[in-house]
Amino acid sequence: MRLYxxxxxxxxxxxxxxxxGAVVMMKPDCVLGLATGSTPIGAYEILxxxxxxxxxxxxxxxTVNLDEYCGLAPDHxxxxxxxxxxxxxxxxxxxxxxxHVPDGLAVDKVTAxxxxxxxxQAMGFTDLQLLGLGENGHIGFNEPGELVAGTHEVQLTKSTxxxxxxxxxxxxxxxxxxxxxxLWGIMTSRKVLLVACGEKKADALRxxxxxxxxxxxxxxxxxxxxxxxVVCDQEAMQG
Length: 239
Hints:
- The protein is α/β, with parallel strands linked by helices.
- The chain has a single domain, classed as 3-Layer(aba) Sandwich (Rossmann fold).
- The chain is 33% helix and 17% strand.
- It contains eight helices and ten strands.
- The chain has helices spanning 9-26, 41-52, 80-87, 109-122, 158-164, 183-187, 202-210, 234-238, and strands at residues 2-6, 31-34, 62-65, 67-69, 99-100, 128-131, 152-155, 177-180, 192-196, 228-233.
- The protein has a seven-stranded parallel β-sheet. Strands 4-8-7 form a three-stranded antiparallel β-sheet.
- Strand 2 (31-34), helix 2 (41-52) and strand 3 form a beta-alpha-beta unit.
- Helix 1 packs across helix 2.
């Protein structure tokens, strides 16, 4: 494990952008696993600027996202496809056909999940998987209590719904289910980049990195990954 403890969110964003950018520069046709939420937004802004300044070229890059809310169309303003378009894809020279997000509208979630996993395998797996960390230790939408290998539908926990409610007009609007990449998709990545900011993430980060590997803390499985990189701020590390 490589651990980078930065002073604040700005420092975390710079470090994450540096690490992702290095993969793109070393392998122009890389496959990036991407995440949503507030944590990666700063890094996405830096990557977008580097692309605009022609320091990075995303024209041959492929991406796969971790998850999507069930029931939200891709153009819904709260969908994760819309999030990625707004914060990254519309600002870089990536071919939209090479960007992939799970289908939240799929009627048959089991088949949709299996097809998503087959697509990842056909790409040769991800070169780097970016992960945020939930306050309850979830990664993607892999919630505490069970470790599922493949992409699958999941019931969101009360704590996750409450954490995401700030992004919606009312908590009642937060979807109760999502489709998420499972732990197989995450653990097959050549590199995993786990990012955590703020004191609210301190307990989850400590348990993920230094506690036992357990279904109660899905992120703890990352201890078994061959190339785990962790970037956090001082608040998340010191709690």
